[in-house]
Write a structure and sequence with these properties.
Layout: H1 15-22, H2 24-46, H3 51-74, H4 77-86, H5 93-114, H6 124-163, H7 165-178, H8 191-218, H9 223-236, H10 246-266, H11 275-287
Helix pairs in contact: 1-2, 1-3, 2-3, 3-4, 3-6, 4-6, 5-9, 5-10, 6-7, 6-8, 6-9, 6-11, 7-8, 8-9, 8-10
Length: 294
């Protein structure tokens, strides 16, 4: 009988996977914005509470899309590597203090200086415990670590691997802001409120994504670090002891400027600096085990 040789050709990719291989960022954005806007349009149009739909957005749309496209693009191990970064807690104590405390503390300081600090009816110790729970449990574990797995772990990391810190931050910001647009149409909205919200959302997004990028560089790509930062910023906007909203906005600007200055002065000690080093670091996060060194 003639000898038959076995072919070891790779299994052909399906069309969505093949498209994602060629265009990972575009594929991710089509899924996230298409499904995300659809999910949030339901409560906006029907006048329903947004909370259940936010969980669908975060757990299904954002997390699911980032894991799926990661697997399509980089193979079965990519989703596991991305999730490992969401649990990467081994970074410096100073960085932990910054991501947990810096924005809320600066917000309170600005309120105290400007005379807009109010007394706490619950007592300060109770308030601090409440806000710690809000940041670390409700904010980080329930929402923001999965949200930032998509934005920081998938999108911004891939853009940083191509373009470096600054350009990646500027490119991530519009999509990050856009997914939040339907939230401006909660019950009782008015067009002036929506216009102001859009200006604030799209104006602050580049600053915040730059802060996220600095934290990624300073923690070897830890998604957990940027998720805690995200949660602490959200908490700072809801402080009962602060009269007004401008304090949290200014706090984010100040913290970003200080972290950026520290990054520039300390150089490698605060994370890779320079476009080539930033690109190399982000590329390494995509192919490594995802474990953040001490």
């Amino acid at each position: 009988m003639p000898r038959t040789e076995t072919s070891h050709r790779p299994v052909p990719l399906n069309r969505p996977a093949a498209t994602a291989r060629r265009h990972p960022v575009a594929s991710f954005l089509v899924l996230v914005l298409g499904l995300g806007w659809s999910a949030l349009a339901v409560p906006a149009v029907a006048g329903l509470p947004f909370a259940p739909f936010l969980l669908v957005l975060v757990w299904v749309v954002l997390l699911g899309s980032s894991l799926l496209v990661s697997r399509w693009v980089d193979g079965p191990g990519a989703a596991r590597r991305l999730l490992a970064r969401a649990a990467a807690w081994r970074f410096s104590l100073a960085r932990w203090v910054v991501v947990i405390v810096a924005v809320p503390a600066t917000t309170l300081l600005l309120a105290a200086v400007s005379g807009t600090l109010q007394g706490s009816g619950r007592g300060w110790l109770t308030s601090m415990a409440f806000y710690a729970f809000d940041i670390l449990v409700f904010g980080t574990l329930l929402l923001n670590v999965w949200e930032e797995t998509a934005w920081g772990g998938f999108l911004q990391t891939r853009l940083m691997a191509r373009h470096g810190l600054l350009v990646a931050s500027l490119l991530t910001a519009p999509a990050f802001a856009a997914i939040h647009v339907p939230l401006l149409f909660e019950e009782g909205w008015t067009w002036p409120d929506v216009a102001g919200g859009l200006a604030l959302l799209f104006g602050l997004a580049p600053v915040y994504r730059y802060l996220v990028g600095l934290h990624l560089l300073g923690t070897s790509g830890s998604v957990l670090a940027v998720a805690v930062q995200h949660a602490s910023w959200n908490t700072a906007t809801r402080l009962d002891e602060v009269e007004g909203e401008w304090q949290a906005i200014v706090a984010v600007l100040l913290v970003t400027a200080i972290v950026a200055l520290h990054h520039r002065i300390r150089g490698g000690a605060a994370g890779p600096r320079g476009r080539d080093a930033e690109r190399a670091a982000a590329t390494a996060w995509l192919v490594s085990s995802g474990r953040v060194p001490a």
